[in-house]
Amino acid sequence: MAWGTKVRGGLGRFFEYDTPKIVHIRSLRVGILYRLVQLTIIAYIVGYVIVWKKGYQLTENVESTVTSKVKGVVLTNVSLFGEDNPTERVWDTADYVVPPQENGAFFVTTNVIVTPNQQQGICPELLPSCSKDADCPRLSPSANGVRSGTCNTTTGSCNVYAWCPVERDQEPALPVLNGTEAFTVLIKNQIIFPKFGIRRRNILDSFQTNSTYLASCHYDPVNDPYCPVFVLADIIRLAGENYSAIAVKGAVIGFVIEWDCNLDLPVNWCLPKYSFRRIDNANDVSAKGWNFRYANYWTDTESQNHTVQRRTLVKAYGIRFIFYVYGVAGKFNMVPFFTNLGAGLALLGLAVIFCDIAILYCSKKRNFYKENKYYEVKDDDAFLIEESQQSSTNRSPSYSDFQ
Amino acid sequence: MAWGTKVRGGLGRFFEYDTPKIVHIRSLRVGILYRLVQLTIIAYIVGYVIVWKKGYQLTENVESTVTSKVKGVVLTNVSLFGEDNPTERVWDTADYVVPPQENGAFFVTTNVIVTPNQQQGICPELLPSCSKDADCPRLSPSANGVRSGTCNTTTGSCNVYAWCPVERDQEPALPVLNGTEAFTVLIKNQIIFPKFGIRRRNILDSFQTNSTYLASCHYDPVNDPYCPVFVLADIIRLAGENYSAIAVKGAVIGFVIEWDCNLDLPVNWCLPKYSFRRIDNANDVSAKGWNFRYANYWTDTESQNHTVQRRTLVKAYGIRFIFYVYGVAGKFNMVPFFTNLGAGLALLGLAVIFCDIAILYCSKKRNFYKENKYYEVKDDDAFLIEESQQSSTNRSPSYSDFQ
Amino acid sequence: MAWGTKVRGGLGRFFEYDTPKIVHIRSLRVGILYRLVQLTIIAYIVGYVIVWKKGYQLTENVESTVTSKVKGVVLTNVSLFGEDNPTERVWDTADYVVPPQENGAFFVTTNVIVTPNQQQGICPELLPSCSKDADCPRLSPSANGVRSGTCNTTTGSCNVYAWCPVERDQEPALPVLNGTEAFTVLIKNQIIFPKFGIRRRNILDSFQTNSTYLASCHYDPVNDPYCPVFVLADIIRLAGENYSAIAVKGAVIGFVIEWDCNLDLPVNWCLPKYSFRRIDNANDVSAKGWNFRYANYWTDTESQNHTVQRRTLVKAYGIRFIFYVYGVAGKFNMVPFFTNLGAGLALLGLAVIFCDIAILYCSKKRNFYKENKYYEVKDDDAFLIEESQQSSTNRSPSYSDFQ
């Protein structure tokens, strides 16, 4: 044959079509079985994976910022800072939000133990524990400081190097700051889906137009689900807790903002959903609730050349709000769609495998089906030669021989 | 047949090969169609999924730490702390970075409203709102404190329990701290991809050798893209904002560090990319910009046994920088590769399905093709028996009967 | 044919079964090859993807909160605050944890440089750099403040507007706070897997019953792997660092908590794993270790109507602990399982492709196999007509013609 012809031959061969030979079995039973299995698989792939589980979408997690601004004042009537100061005392934001700003969290003081005007010195520790100096090993640490080695006979407690006087750390019974539940907090949450280039904020653009609504509204899951101003009492109630109980010893509350955005729908439908939950264990046996200590330091010039460093120690109980912003955006994308589709098509193969097993092994007419499905080819190296009578060119199936 | 033979038989059967019978159709039209469809699918899988979308890589998100150190001083010439203090006042890092350290963020004060030496007491609130005591319901909260129930006739505003004197909260016109744009910040960002065990930092090892570069360089997207020292003015400019405008009322700026690492390439190519964007809404109607209040507390010993607690209230406007470290590392991994490949192979099946539909339903010669592709087998339970003339052993196709 | 019949016909056709015709090749060689390839693929899919890589599980990342409480006191014996104060000085939590609370981190001071009682004024800067006023350009910034334009002849350094006296910023040799390594920190970590609705805490419920264990235990990777109280010295040791070295200039330490939860197993087996690593670069050339400055402000009433604002500047070196909570939960889910299975089934197709290539191209008997596998159909539009002798109805293969 001429070379040219060969090429045309090869080229022709490339442009020919290979399709599997199909055995078409006209059996109602098998047919129904086949379609049922197929149907189940298709229902799973299309209905569940693609549609229900949004298998056609590429998803991305949210990136977000939250800033908060607490508002409110309370008037207390307890003497905390010594008798000289007026017992009426007002607490404003600068007093009860400590530290003034945090990243992704904020703290509202609800209860305090104040120890004013401490200075370094030697004084008796709180708990009586000694009768003689020997009971107070020098330099041994104690809750309030480091023991000086002497026993204070009047109080019956060891003397300690410490900030004197030492803190009276009694368990609080009632919250000192009474009325914090009425405080409001303005939340600003900006999110972005970098890959999709979508930016959203929890303060809807519609609010920008009427600032009066923002100024007056309070979040309510039913009536005002998009108002960014929250009353502390509401937050605690929605978290399923009792404010007056929490206010005494403090708590850690999760402030959850969820954004579940289907970007195949109008982007305006991508809205925040707020929820709240208590995070610390209400039944903790150790360090229950939430509190921490901080101090304000200054130096007194007692005389011309005598200065004393002093501090006011505050043990603050309160509610620590921690922000969690979750949320995913989904958008149609070829890769997940076709990957799921491809895997699905492959699963369709299971239908044939399943039915073949049925007709070839479980059916009474298995031999008949085998004869028709299989086309026997014997190769010379087969060691079963003695068992078979057929020639390598024999076209007729002969499985029956092996039964 | 002997048992031994049976086993050898079964064993032999297991070690035989099943391959689908293929109908090879020598038609140029169909052949070309077939290859085109195949080509498209292969191009999609190999070109798009595997190569372009890196379908052969396992990806992992970055874990990171960022620490920052701001440097710079400004000299202000306004009297903020009462006339007794020198009007020249220097602000250094300890003064304008509040709180001194944050996790994943830092704040630089650009503007302040200072209310020095407040003390608890009763004084008129800022806004005139009363002519007689009846206008000031006792204990009703106000912006500055809690109303005492009397009206201050001189100021025409209600008396409040508050930190006195109350803050003069006028809208700022110019930033008090003039020159903050020249401040520099040193950023240290350490990242880790735990699964891949890769650690990188934004201060390249090459810099370690010449500390002079680090000491002198300033980040520039073009000339110094890897210098970890940033001038605030540059950051704001690159965020597309106007510093002098922002300095007045503050802003929240996202400091984005991106690590996009292909670990199949040399790890040294895994480098940070910086970008900046304003996060708060420049057009906010409520609480525009960024500010917060904090106070410094101390106690004055006015006489032997008379102490007064005082505070200096600061309303700080400024720029809050929040760090976002994104980034993924990708590395070749069998699972994603073969999963995508397998799903791809399955999609190739679409080519046959597509062409079969073409030749079996759309082609003029459909019957001819059907005769050749299908091999008819009639089962006794078929209820179509009366329509067909062939016997269950009949080998020759007979689709034509059904047309 | 009647319409009714046609419908029944069509209906019947739908409920018939199509299964590919299989060429069964009884060749031991090919059979073994075939099964080997199949086995490899199945081993990969089932063994590696499904079982080893848990391809049957849907995974979710952890959401977590960490709160910490540091305990301990140290007694220092250096004069930091001027001679008037007692040299024995106690540091408690409120003194050395700055800021008092952070989100996801905490800082423990180990070393300080204190500059007490600074006030705004003009004083010589630290480093001698001038001999005449001309060397001190007015308003040029310096490390300590802004130059006033005059040279202080006694110190030979420029006068600056600054907080006076300026900080003596010598490199620290020994840590001032000696004994911080004995401090303990109580960690509370609450995690949640929202999708799975699973909540866990690092303080095991079993501990709730005996609070004495919590009060006394210290974390130890071997003996007390679940005790939530950590000794700082242990943390640093486990991070592979030397505490006394770190205490001088500070460091940033990653406090890693890992939760690797297989929710197909009892949820009680989902337990935290702690590990620690140094994050900052021990060999940094610039700003080595970790330190920052903060100040305490107050106002002195020096006379009836003369007040001076003062501050105490603290440069704090210390260990910054940053929490990383990683962890995934996996739970059986149909979608990943079937997606991996489907992709796997498709890969099985590779076995046939592989063996077909072997027998059709690499085998000596390739023609024999081609004859049996392929079933030749010639279409009239084929341009190879002249090369073939067979008729379109010819059933017998004729590949040999093309060799």
From TrEMBL, chains A, B, C:
Membrane-spanning intervals of the chain: 32-51, 312-329, 341-363
Its Gene Ontology molecular function terms?
ATP binding; extracellularly ATP-gated monoatomic cation channel activity; purinergic nucleotide receptor activity
- The primary site where this protein sits is membrane
Q: Example GO biological process term?
A: response to ATP
Which Pfam families does the UniProt entry name for this protein? Answer: P2X_receptor
Q: Which Gene3D superfamilies match?
A: atp-gated p2x4 ion channel, atp-gated p2x4 ion channel domain
Question: Where is this chain's protein located in or outside the cell?
Answer: Cell membrane
Cystines in this chain: C123-C164, C130-C151, C136-C158, C217-C227, C261-C270
Does this entry carry the keyword Iron-sulfur? no
Q: Which reaction does it catalyse?
A: Ca(2+)(in) = Ca(2+)(out)
Gene Ontology cellular-component annotations: plasma membrane; postsynapse
- State the annotated membrane topology for this chain: Multi-pass membrane protein
**Sequence positions that bind ATP:** K69, V70, K71, T184, N291, F292, R293, K315
Keywords attached to this Swiss-Prot or TrEMBL record, sorted alphabetically, are:
ATP-binding, Cell membrane, Disulfide bond, Glycoprotein, Ion channel, Ion transport, Ligand-gated ion channel, Membrane, Nucleotide-binding, Transmembrane, Transmembrane helix, Transport
Give yes or no: UniProt keyword Disulfide bond: yes
Q: Which family does it belong to?
A: Belongs to the P2X receptor family.
Q: By what name is this protein known?
A: P2X purinoceptor 4
Which species? Answer: Hypsibius exemplaris
Taxonomic lineage: Eukaryota, Metazoa, Ecdysozoa, Tardigrada, Eutardigrada
